[in-house]
Amino acid sequence: MSRRRFEAAAATAAASLGPTRTKALATLLSQGRSPAYILGRLQTPAALEAVSALLASMMEDGVPSAETSAYLRGYAAAWTRQREDTEARAVWSGPSTPGTPSRATAQVLTEVVGAAEHRLVAVTYSARSYAPLTAALSEAVARGVTVDIVVETLEGAGGLLSGREPADAFSRVPGLRLWHWPTGQRPTPGSRLHAKLAVADDRILFLSSANLTAAGAERNIEAGVLLNGGPMPGRMAEHIRELQRRGVLARWSGA
């Protein structure tokens, strides 16, 4: 494995872990902990593959733990600087007026997916196959982005959704990872997974009323906000990763 492969593995692991857990990994490496110990302490299923690949590349390239630790801390420091400034833009779909924001939901959604270099996470209630989004997600996976999408299920919606499972909308994107909120993890009957958002690389956050459907992207009246930079994208992505780690969100098996 070339040094470039090691650098790519470090970038992917850092993006999967987020700033806080990246620093935790750096600390474990600086302490000279074994791979088995590190994987056991992190307990981050969503990032297990990426961290395992990084540890393997260290051994194959002969990169010392101390150097990898410094490399990861550099990523965390860069994120901290990058997140100090926030740019916020309004997003709108539907009938326009002279003061309507120029950014439309469909445009912003595909741009956020296209901006992801290492990790993308999205959450939606309803989902239907939407060609521009499917193409953007396929391109993201092909360039090595770890893509996680959390969807509601027909069971979880309790009859409020019909037709095929929302997860089926992403069946044409091989390598994409699907998650759901098991009904056994919900606090009360009737609880719904109703959030709609997308986060790219812990630095871009798109919050919207729109589901991941053609209607939500192009036809409905929908409103949202696009945040570029600042702490909120990373905090939102880290929250989702923690829900995955705790088992509140589980991998969707299609069952």
From TrEMBL:
One of its GO terms (molecular function) is catalytic activity. PROSITE patterns: PLD. GO terms for biological process: phosphorus metabolic process. InterPro entries: DrmC-like, PLD-like_dom, PLipase_D/transphosphatidylase. Residues 189-216 form the PLD phosphodiesterase domain. Pfam families: PLDc_2. CDD domains: PLDc_unchar4 (cd09132). NCBIfam families: DISARM_DrmC_I. This is Putative phospholipase protein. It comes from Streptomyces albus (strain ATCC 21838 / DSM 41398 / FERM P-419 / JCM 4703 / NBRC 107858).
